[in-house]
Amino acid sequence: MKTILVMTDFSRAAKNAAQTALNIAEQFGAELLLLHSYHLPQIILAEPLKMDYKEIEEKAAVSLEKEKERLLKLMKTRQGYVRIHTINTIAPISEILYDIQQGEKLMLAVMGRHKRHKSNFLFANHIHIAMRNSDCPLLILSSSEFLPDSCRINFASDLNEKDIALLESIDKIRKAFKASLSISYVMESPGLIADFNEEGRIASFQGVLRRDKFSDIPFHLLKSPSIAHEIDRMFPPSKDNLLLLVNRTHGLLHEIFHSSHCYAIIKKHRGAILVLPEHWKPACRPLTGAGASEQV
């Protein structure tokens, strides 16, 4: 059985993420796994903070059970049924994600984001931890409603060769959600190290899109000093827009001399974002009738 992981801190955005995950689980015949992991402070003080972690864990367990009951009540208004499991722990989210992925076949991880997102502030920091440690797609949602069915997907690509290899899988996402798909690339001003291969990558990607299989996908070549600003100008965040990114594993030198394409957009974009691992392949597609989910 495929599982959708929902990471929650019981905020409005996290509850919206859980409801969206429930809708997707019903459509794909998957189970839900609700996870709450308390983020232990990493600050070293002369005198450690006196905190009752047992009490924190117990309060979180009560909140987690209430969230499960809320989702079960939502299901009663519809015909489908989704099994919901819970995990409540005080442990680093990276370790928990690793352990879960060893025992579960995760098809998707879902999490909320706070309205005033900063890359290193409380739960928002978990977005980047989850990106680094997830083997499955990661859906990041705000407190605004997002409807997966018939949404408009924009693949914000940096035209890497591996993005071309992912087009087949991305096209299956489009079909699964009955969505439209477009691809955009933002030509940025050169950083400390110029991108001498940019024109070649653009020509190669356009050549792939001209093939019959992908010829109907619109391609937008944009120019701006800011990736996030240009993406939001062309594809403004809304409940029926889904921004699709690829999280690529870069070496240390790349992180020092270049800004991360994926991180730069996530930091500013306020709409729904689906982040794909660069080696990802889809596992299943929506139910057809009353049977189990079919393998792609």
Automatic annotation (TrEMBL):
Q: Which SUPFAM superfamilies match?
A: Adenine nucleotide alpha hydrolases-like
Q: Which residues form the UspA domain?
A: 1-141
Taxonomically, which superkingdom?
Answer: Bacteria
Q: Which Gene3D superfamilies match?
A: 3.40.50.12370
| A Pfam family reported for this protein in Swiss-Prot or TrEMBL | Usp
Family to which this protein belongs: Belongs to the universal stress protein A family.
Full protein name: UspA domain-containing protein
Q: Which organism is it from?
A: Pedobacter paludis
